[in-house]
């Protein structure tokens, strides 16, 4: 049972929160008494959902430092001192690396990684002022088990994990905490069309990821896998010789995105994120 008093009144800003993991996280935090601002490129949807759950919506483009800075300032102006930033915004194109549009690869790097860098650099001065706080970065188990068919995405998530660990090391003697959340396949629009392509990857709901964020904020841990048992699996996997790792992944069919992705089911999401590469 979560201790509600630990998050009651805490000001928490979440990016990419008009849908999916970000929205589920906002709902979970508000249920525990937190004051939540949800930032998203889609301001109309963000405002609609914010009104429904009792949050405040602001537009943010995490690729743009001025936009991100304004989002954090708007949050502070509306609620007061910032306690936590949840860097959730991200995109996940799928397909062969050699065929990926360079502009789409750049968009992933800008949103999935550079956006996290920008957010951390902008939020940390506010947390330092308060001498406390917590930054949560939504990474992925694809940042531990690189996924054929999502090469650049996997690369950005490896980068987020390394960034989180390194910055946590810089602040280890402070009261500022850092967590990277590592979900497996999350049942959102990002993974539409992977029902047959990623059968062997455990599927989790946005609510399960949201619960991991809440858990981290209450009892800090540097890394949290979702589901949690995969944290142990990763440790054991790292001890295997490379030839055995390759064989195991071949048996599990980890190249399913390249061979079994239902492109028609994934097309609506693909069209939406392709606009970000223009």
From TrEMBL:
Family: Belongs to the short-chain dehydrogenases/reductases (SDR) family.
InterPro entries: NAD(P)-bd_dom_sf, Sc_DH/Rdtase_CS, SDR_fam
UniProt key word Oxidoreductase: yes
Signal peptide stretch: none
Protein name (record): 3-hydroxybutyrate dehydrogenase
A Pfam short name: adh_short
GO MF, any single term: oxidoreductase activity
The species this protein was found in: Acinetobacter bereziniae LMG 1003 = CIP 70.12
Domain of life where this protein originates: Bacteria
Keywords: NADP, Oxidoreductase
Keyword Membrane among record annotations: no
């Amino acid at each position: 049972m979560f201790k509600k008093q630990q998050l009651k009144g805490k000001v928490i800003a979440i990016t990419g929160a008009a849908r999916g993991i970000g929205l589920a996280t906002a709902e979970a935090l508000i249920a525990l008494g937190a004051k939540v601002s949800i930032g998203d490129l889609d301001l109309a949807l963000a405002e609609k959902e914010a009104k429904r759950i009792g949050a405040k919506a602001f537009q943010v483009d995490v690729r743009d430092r001025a936009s991100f800075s304004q989002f954090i300032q708007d949050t502070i102006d509306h609620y007061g001192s910032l306690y936590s930033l949840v860097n959730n915004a991200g995109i996940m194109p799928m397909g062969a690396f050699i065929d990926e549009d360079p502009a789409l690869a750049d968009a992933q790097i800008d949103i999935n990684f550079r956006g996290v860098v920008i957010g951390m650099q902008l939020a940390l001065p506010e947390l330092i002022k308060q001498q406390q706080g917590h930054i949560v970065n939504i990474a992925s188990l694809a940042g531990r088990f690189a996924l054929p068919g999502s090469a650049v995405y996997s690369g950005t998530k490896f980068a987020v994990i390394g960034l989180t660990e390194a910055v946590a090391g810089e602040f280890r003697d402070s009261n500022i905490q850092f967590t990277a959340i590592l979900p497996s396949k999350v049942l959102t629009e990002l993974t539409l069309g992977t029902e047959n392509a990623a059968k062997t990857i455990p599927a989790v709901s946005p609510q399960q990821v949201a619960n991991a964020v809440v858990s981290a904020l209450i009892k800090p841990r540097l890394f949290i896998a979702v589901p949690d048992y995969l944290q142990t699996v990763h440790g054991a996997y790292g001890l295997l010789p490379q030839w055995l790792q390759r064989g195991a992944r071949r048996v599990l069919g980890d190249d399913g995105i390249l061979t079994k992705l239902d492109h028609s089911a994934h097309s609506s999401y693909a069209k939406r994120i392709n606009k970000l590469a223009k």
